[in-house]
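Figure 3 (text version): structure tokens given as input.
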């Protein structure tokens, strides 16, 4: 579930094999990144008071 993998795979296929970029990979990668960002923000805001105590 790493969104960077799809970007790397797209670049590799374009450079090594001359295949045009797969837009499905780009959209899926962006979607996963946005979902993980939202989850991270929600978890951070819930735990930020506890988190600051451990710094």
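Below: residues designed for each position.
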């Amino acid at each position: 579930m790493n969104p960077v993998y799809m970007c790397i795979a797209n670049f590799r296929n374009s450079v090594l094999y001359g295949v045009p970029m797969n837009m499905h990979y780009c959209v899926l990668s962006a979607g996963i990144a946005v979902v993980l960002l939202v989850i991270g923000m929600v978890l951070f805001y819930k735990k930020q008071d506890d988190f600051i105590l451990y710094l």
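The mean pLDDT is 88.
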